[in-house]
């Protein structure tokens, strides 16, 4: 009780709750009287405090409607829900009524889900019709192109001999790429060189595959011996080359490192060379002679030398 | 750690609020169930015993909490925090409706009621109205301190935390509020009547 002397005036609340004025100890009463005028005020405060507590006990608690709780919980759920889900739900609610039976009312066409589904169906049907019409047009165009292709090929096939008759000022046909499947092996540069090297390295061919190449090379050497590359020879060159390459392609399918020159590329190269006027007979002869001086093996095939000098 | 429905009632306020921040709906429901009654009574006492307004305020308070659960400061006890928020809402209501409140006080005040209490028995309804009338005349902080202490049974320390002041300030407010009310409502004190007659 001695501790009460150190209490602040506001701690009188404890005394008011616990004891009446008459029950206060001497020290407590002295302490109370330093802040309160006297017994009447102390008792009035004590009475009021008791009445407040009593009133609080008597008071019926106020009840909250469950709707308020539902509203608050809905607010919490809405806050926790991702925005995209809210958006989807709003769309879903718009399209799809809660009661499924409502989908089959009399005004079913007014239901957004059915209306949008019908609209989507119409759009899909329209797109399909447009696409099918476009495809028909494209297929007709493709058919026309297919008709043109053989004509082109016919022109391209005798390209090497034909270049002789082409004018120098005639523009070279643009290089066109053919699909790999339609590629026709016509000539070989590196592959042929390799076979020539083999010839150089090996006096006699080891495999039967190299045999045709050797033959072709021998033919070229024979031509070289004649010392003339006349037009007749050149005219004959194409079939020879084609034969050689056909044999080469059959034989050298395993040579993965070689570059296969297509008939198209060969045509382009020759045409380019003719167009620029770089290939002349004299030049061909000079080059053939020069290469004959450098390497006897390369000189064995002056046609390839001409091609290498002109285009490659 | 999973928190099952049975455990929500035993979790502390602060733990529940952690779960609420993470989006736990049931935890939020538990917080609401734990505090809605006390807060509604607080609003009711602070806002002129207006039930509808008290419900609106309660709904506003929990809607704000639902929308921004992160506004709760985890370093503070939840009870003091939620009551301080409620108190601030009441202060705003006072500011906005000062004129209406003054008019309401005038309408409620009447000498006839005081005469009726002259006696040993105390009419609790009249006492309640009179107390409310006198509380509304007080400074809002003093009134809120008194309500928190004597109606919500909050500890001095909790009230101090709710107001962001010292415990001494809270005790001083309580003492002088009680002294003032006792002075103004002495007609309800049977002893005073007895002494007066004597």
Distance between the termini of chain B: 70 Å
Kindly report the greatest chain-chain contact and the residue count on each side.
Answer: A-B, 39 and 46 residues
Unreliable stretches of chain B (pLDDT < 50, length at least 5) are 1-5, 110-121, 193-198
Give unreliable regions of chain A as ranges.
1-6, 156-172, 178-229, 235-242
Number of strands of chain A: 2
Q: Give me the count of strands of chain B.
A: 0
Average pLDDT confidence of chain A is: 64
What is the number of helical segments of chain A per DSSP (H or I, 4+ residues)? 14
Mean pLDDT score of chain B:
80
Q: Quote the beta fraction of chain A.
A: under 5%
User: What pattern of helices and strands is seen along the backbone of chain A?
Assistant: HHHHHHHEHHHEHHHH
Helix fraction bin of chain B: over 70%
Q: Any idea what the radius of gyration of chain B is?
A: 20 Å
Short description:
The complex is a heterodimer of chains A (312) and B (198). By secondary structure, chain A is mainly alpha-helical.
Structure report:
The complex is a heterodimer of chains A (312) and B (198). Chain A is elongated. Chain A contains 14 helices and 2 strands; from the N terminus they run αααααααβαααβαααα. Chain A has a two-stranded antiparallel ribbon with strand order 1-2. In chain A, helix 12 (281-294) crosses helix 14 (302-310). Mean pLDDT of chain A is 64; it is low at 1-6, 156-172, 178-229 and 235-242. With 312 residues, chain A is mainly α. Chain A has helices spanning 12-18, 26-33, 39-58, 66-80, 83-95, 112-156, 159-165, 190-201, 210-226, 231-251, 263-276, 281-294, 296-299, 302-310, and strands at 185-188, 260-262. Chain B is mainly α and 198 residues long. Chain B folds into 2 domains: 1-97, Orthogonal Bundle (Rna Polymerase Sigma Factor, Chain: A), CATH 1.10.1740.10; 109-198, Winged helix-like DNA-binding domain superfamily/Winged helix DNA-binding domain (Arc Repressor Mutant, subunit A), CATH 1.10.10.10. Chain B contains 12 helices and no strands. In chain B, helix 5 packs across helix 10 (156-163). The longest helix of chain B is centred in the N-terminal third of the chain and has 22 residues, at 25-46. Chain B is globular and about 55 Å long. The termini of chain B are far apart. Chain A binds chain B through residues 8-13, 16, 35-36, 40-41, 43-45, 47-49, 51-56, 58-59, 61-62, 64-65, 68-69, 71-73, 75-77, 79-80, and chain B through 23, 25, 28-29, 32, 36-37, 40-41, 44, 51, 54-55, 58-59, 62-63, 66-67, 122, 124, 127-128, 131, 150-151, 168, 170-175, 178-179, 181-183, 185-186, 188-192, 195.
